Amino acid sequence: MFSSPFASLWLAAVSLNNEFALKPTDDRTRAIAERVFASETKDDDVRDEISLFDVPDDCPILNQELAQHVTEDDDEEKRSVNKIMPFQTVLQVTMDDFELACKGLYRALTIREKYMRLAFQRFPDTPSQFLRKIEGEQWKPEDQVLPVFTSPPKSGEDPFCTKDFPPNLGYVARMKDGVIYVYKDAASADKHQPLNHPGPDLVTFIDDMNFLIALIAQGPTKTYTHRRLKFLMSKFNVHEMLNEMEEMKELKKNPHRDFYNCRKVDTHIHAAACMNQKHLLRFIKKSYRVDADRVVHVLKGKEMTMKELFASLNLHPYDLTVDSLDVHAGRQTFQRFDKFNAKYNPVGASELRDLYMKTENHISGEYFATIIKEVASDLEDARYQYAEPRLSIYGCNPNEWTKLASWFNKHRVFSPHLKWMIQVPRIYDIFRGRNFVPHFGKMLENIFLPIFQATIDPNSNPELSVFLKHVTAFDSVDDESKHSGHMFSTKSPKPEEWDIVKSPSYSYWIYYMYANIARLNQLRKERGMNTFQFRPHCGEAGAVTHLLACFMTADNISHGLNLKKSPVLQYLYYLAQVPIAMSPLSNNSLFLEYNKNPLLEFHKKGLMVSLSTDDPMQFHYTKEPLMEEYAIAAQVFKLSTCDMCEIARNSVLQSGLSAEEKIHFLGTNYLKDGPEGNDIRKTNLAQIRMAYRYETLCYELNLIREGVMAD
Amino acid sequence: MFSSPFASLWLAAVSLNNEFALKPTDDRTRAIAERVFASETKDDDVRDEISLFDVPDDCPILNQELAQHVTEDDDEEKRSVNKIMPFQTVLQVTMDDFELACKGLYRALTIREKYMRLAFQRFPDTPSQFLRKIEGEQWKPEDQVLPVFTSPPKSGEDPFCTKDFPPNLGYVARMKDGVIYVYKDAASADKHQPLNHPGPDLVTFIDDMNFLIALIAQGPTKTYTHRRLKFLMSKFNVHEMLNEMEEMKELKKNPHRDFYNCRKVDTHIHAAACMNQKHLLRFIKKSYRVDADRVVHVLKGKEMTMKELFASLNLHPYDLTVDSLDVHAGRQTFQRFDKFNAKYNPVGASELRDLYMKTENHISGEYFATIIKEVASDLEDARYQYAEPRLSIYGCNPNEWTKLASWFNKHRVFSPHLKWMIQVPRIYDIFRGRNFVPHFGKMLENIFLPIFQATIDPNSNPELSVFLKHVTAFDSVDDESKHSGHMFSTKSPKPEEWDIVKSPSYSYWIYYMYANIARLNQLRKERGMNTFQFRPHCGEAGAVTHLLACFMTADNISHGLNLKKSPVLQYLYYLAQVPIAMSPLSNNSLFLEYNKNPLLEFHKKGLMVSLSTDDPMQFHYTKEPLMEEYAIAAQVFKLSTCDMCEIARNSVLQSGLSAEEKIHFLGTNYLKDGPEGNDIRKTNLAQIRMAYRYETLCYELNLIREGVMAD
C-alpha cells in the first residue's frame, strides 16, 4: 500500500498521537524510535536520501504523506483550519493534522518544562503560561524555577575566601546505576535509601525521548512546523520592512547607549584557546626572555629548563612566527575535526601545549593562568565584554577536581569579566582503551562524586568549594560527527556495566551528565549554594537526535547548526526559547561556510541566538575576537544595530552572569518576557522589536493551544 | 543576415583589426566607438540585455559570432591553435581569431605603456620586455620609467622645512584647451610656444580610446580573453591544490615574519572618514568637555561657542551615541550613493561635518587635523600599517591649495605612516549651477595652475611647496553610476568652451586630469621634485568605458568591480598588472554583496589586487579597520596566509611609499618581477607563489607574442 519505506513508521507515529498525546508511549513507539535511531547511525549520504526529519522546500514527500493521512481518516469531515483561523491561510493543513501536530508539540514542551524544573534550569514564563492555560490551571510567578549563580564579590570581599562555608551535613554520596545519590548515612546507602532529591527516572526519560523521536519524524508535525517556520521568516521580513526605521529611531533617541557599550558575553569559548594566536606568540617569546633558565618540564625523570625544552624541539622562540606556531585553522581543517584538534599544539609540539595551555604541568599551570588573566584584563579594559571560558574535567581520575581547584586558587584566576564552565570531553573510549578506567560508571563517578562531597562538606576541600562557587555550568564536548552506533534505550547497559572500549552514544552521555547535575543541583540549592547549568555542544555535526537529547536536558546549547535539518526541533527550540550560542567563524573553518550559516535565518525566525568565538586562537585575527565575530556577522548578514543589540542581550540572558549582574546590565525586569523585560537604556534594544518578538511567540503558542483544545 | 543588432558593429571591428592592429583607427572605428559608447549611456537594464563587453559562461552569442567570423573567412585554411600549442586545448579558437585577438591585445598594451611613460607612471618590465621582443627590439633596464616620491625625513630633519627650495625658473604657466602649458616667458605664452614637455595629444588619445572601445566589444577578442581568464582561474586552483602545503612550509620556515608584521598599506581611504565611528564619537565628546566655551562657528556673522552650536542643534554631546551620530552605512545605503553621502554628516548636521571633518572652518580645521594625527598615531603604534588618506581639492577657487597647504603646515599633519593624496570630486555641475565657475576649464585651472606655479617658483608659496612634497597622487571621485550622457570625442567642446551646467563624461574628466598631471610631472621631474600618480576611483559602478579610460591613464585604480563585466579589460588589467585597491566592505554597503565581490576571483587569476578600507567611519566596527578588512576577506574567502601576504605586498607596491621605504619593507630588488623581486624575509610571501605568478604571466604574454608573430 505505501511506497515509502517509512510510511508505516509514520503511520504508527500518527496513530500513537491520535490516541492521545499525553499517554505514555507504548512498545510500538519504542519500535519506531529504534528504527529512527538506527537510520540516524547510517552515514550522512544515506541519511540525506532518507531525510527523515527534514522537509524539502517543495515538500513532495510530505504532501504525499499528508494525502495518505487524509485518506486514512476520510470518513471524518475535512475541516480546514483556515475556516476557524482566517490568518492561517499559510497553514494549509487539515484540521486533524493541525490538532495532531499541536498535541505533539504541546507534549514536547511539557517534557522540556519538566526536565528544566527538575534541574533548576530555565523555562520561560510565556510558554509555561500557555501550558497552564491548556491544562486549565493558573500559572503562578512563584512556579518559576531559576538557576542560582554566585554574586560578584562585594568591594573588599575576597573571591578566594575559604571561610564561612556551611558545616558538614555528614551525608554519604554514592553512585548507583551511573547516578550519584545522597544518603543520610552509610547504612542508608547500603540499603539504597537515598534522601528525597528528585531526579529523572530512566524509564520515563527513555519514554519521553522515544515520543520525541517519533514526533520529529511525524509527517503532519513536520509539515506544520515547516510551514510555521516559513511563516515566521516571512513575518520577520515584513516586520523589518515596516519597522526598521522606527526601530532605528528608538535607538537614536536612546542616550548614552549604543552597540559598543551594551554588554555582550562570549557564551562559548574554550579556555585553552581563549587568547588569539598573536597573543600566544607574544607570550611564548616573553616567557623565554624571562624564564629561559627555569625548569619547566620533566622528560623521563630529567628536569629540563625552557632553553633545553626549546632546544630539544629544534626551536628558538625568537624565530617563532604566527605561521610556525601553526595554531590557526585554515582550509585544511574544513570537515577535518581531527586536523583541527592537532592545531591545539603550538608548532605541533604537545610539550608546548602542556607548558602553556594546561593547568597541570611542572610549573603548576602558571603560564596558562597568566595568559587567561591577560585575556581577562583585556576584557576589563574593553569594559562591556564578558566571557565564559571552559576548563576540562576528564573523569579519568577522582583528584582532577582538586588539582584544577588548586590551580584556580593558587594563581587566583578570577576576574569579574569571566564566568567559569567545566567541559567534559566524551573520550571514554580512549581512557578505557588505555585501561585508565574500568567502566563508564567510573568516569561519571570521577566527574561528579567530588562535587557532591564538596557540597556535603565544603570544608573538606575548601579550594574546590571556592572554585565551585565560580563555576556556572557543565559542557559536553567532542566531535559530534563520530557515530557511536549505540542506541540509548532501557535495555542499554548501566554505566557500571559499560566496560567495552567503545563509547556510549551522545544521548547516553547527555542523560547521565544531566541526571547527575539535576541531583547535584537539588542538593546545592537546598544548601543555599549556586547551581550548575547544563550547556553542551550540540548540533555542530552528527545526528539530529543530539538536538533532541539536549532539548530535554540542556538549559542552552552551543552551535545548533543541525536545527536546519529538523523543522520540528527548530520550531520547538523556538517555542521554548532555548538559547543557542552560535559561532559562525568556527563553523566556517570546520563544518559550514560562512554564507550558509543559519545564524541569520534563526535570528529572523526568533530563535534565541547569541554570538560566540569558540576558539579565538584558531579562528580569529584581531585583538578583539568577540567584536570580530560581531563585525563579520554584521557585515555578511547585514545586521542592523537593533539586531546586534538583540543578539548581545540574548548573550547576557544565556550566560552564567548572576542575577545582580543581569539586573545591572539588562534592567530590573530582565526576567520578564516581552517589552516589559527590556530596559532600552541598558540594552539599546528597541521596544518595537521586543513587542514583535513577544506577540509573535504568543501567537504561535496560542495556535498550539487552539489545536490542543479543538477536541 | 545578422540577427544581432551588434553583429555589424562587431564585423567592422573585426575588419578593422584584420587590416592591421597597429594602423591608426579610421572613421569606421570611430563610428563603432560612438555606437558602443552610446549603448553604454543607456540604463543598466538595457545594457545588461545587450551585454556588449561580457561573455556569458556558456557563450552562445559569441560562439555564434565566432561561427560567423569563421564563415566570413571560410576560404582560409582552418588551422587550429591547438596544433601548434599543445597546452592550449582550452583555447579552442581558430588561428585567425587567435592572431586577431593577440594583435589587438598587443596594441592595447603598447597604448598603456605609452601613456604610463609619458606621465612617469609604472608599466612593469615583464610586459615591456615582451613588447620589445615582438617589435624585434632590445629591452633596456634604463627604459624603465618610475614615479618619484619624497623620501621620509632623515632623523632630525623637519618635514615642514621651507628652506632649500630650488630657485624660481621664471617660467609662465598658462592654460590652453584645458591643459596647462609651461612657457619660457609671457611672450612665448602669448604665441603659445610652450617649452618642450611632451604631453598626450588629444586626437591620438581619442584615436587610441576608440581603438580600445572597439577591441573590448570585439567578438573573437572577448572569446579569447574570456577563455584565458577561465584558464588562469583553473590554473590557480590547480596550483593551490598542488602547492598550498609547500607554500605554507616556506612561510613556516621563514623566521620573524608573519602576516601580522609584514607591511600593509591602506591604499584607498578618505581622510574625512579615516577614523571609525567610535573614534569620532569619543573625539566629539572630548572636544566638548574641553572646548565648550570656545568660539567654533560663525552663523550669519554671529560667533557661536561650541555649547551654543550644539544647543542650536538640540544636542548635548554627553547623550550622543554611535546610533545618534548616524555615520555608519547600513542596509539603507545599499545602491543609494546619495544616502551614503549624507552619512558624512554627524547627526545629519552639516555644521558638525564642517567643525570636525573639514580643513577650513572657524578653528582652521584644528579638530580634523587632531583626529587625523590620532589615526596616524594608532598606525604608528600598530607599526606595520600605513595609509594613504585623500584630501579634497574642488577646483572652485584658485586659493584652495594655499588654504589646504596652510592647514597641513599649521597643524603639522605629518606622519611617516601617512602618504597624502588629493581627490578631485567630479561635481562641476553643482559649481556651475551655482555660478561658482564660468566653465569647466576654470575648474581645471583652479586645480592645476597653482601647482605648476609652485613648481616653477617654490618659494612663491613655501607652504604649498612643502605640502606638495608629501602628496603622492591624484584621485578623481564621485558616484560612477551617474551617467553624463556625453561622449568624449575630438568634437567635444574644449574645457574652456564647456559652459553648460551638465558635467562632462567620466572619460573627459579623466583625460584632462591625466593630461595636466603628465605635463606637471615632466616639469617636476626636470626640477628633481617628486611626481604625482593618477589613481582614480574607477569601476565601482557605471559604464565599463571608465575602466578603459583608466587603463590608458591611471597608474592604478580604486575598486575595479566592473572588470567583471569585460573579459577584455580584465585580461588587459592582468597583463599590464594594473594595481587595483579593492574595498569589499565598502562595496558590501553600497554596490555589491560581500560574497559576490570579485576580489577572490581577481586574486586567483593574478590581477594585482590590494585591500583597502575606503571609509572606516562608515563601514568598519573595530579599532583596526584595515585588519578588519583583511580578517573578513580571509574568513569569507578562506584566504591562506600566503594569499594575505601577497595582497599585503601588492598594497606596498601600489602605494606612494618612497623607494627607500619600499626597499626597507619589500627588499632591495622590489622592482624586479618574479621571485627575484621578492624577499621572503620581509614579505612572508612564498617564492613558489612568486614563481607561479611570474611563469603564468610570461606564458600569457608569450601567447600574445606568438599570436602577433604568427603572420
Question: Can you walk through the features of this model?
Answer:
The structure is a homodimer of 711-residue chains. With 711 residues, chain A is an alpha/beta fold. Among the domains of chain A are: 264-383, Invariant Chain, Chain I; 392-399 and 420-534, no CATH class. Helices cover 51% and strands 8% of the residues of chain A. Chain A is built from 31 helices and 13 strands. Chain A has a five-stranded parallel sheet with strand order 3-6-7-8-9, with helices on both faces. The two termini of chain A are 30 Å apart. Residues 1-24, 43-50 and 57-91 of chain A have low confidence and may be disordered.
Summarize the structure.
Helix content of chain A is 51%, strand content 8%.
Strand order of the largest sheet of chain A: 3-6-7-8-9
Beta-strand portion of chain A reads: 5-15%
Main interface: chain pair and counts = A-B, 47 and 47 residues
Number of helices of chain A: 31
Radius of gyration of chain A: 26 Å
Span between termini of chain A: 30 Å
Could you say which overall geometry of chain A the principal axes of the C-alpha atoms support? globular
State the oligomer. Answer: homodimer
**Secondary-structure class of chain A:** alpha/beta
In this structure, how is the largest beta sheet of chain A organized? 5 strands, parallel
Low-confidence segments of chain A:
1-24, 43-50, 57-91
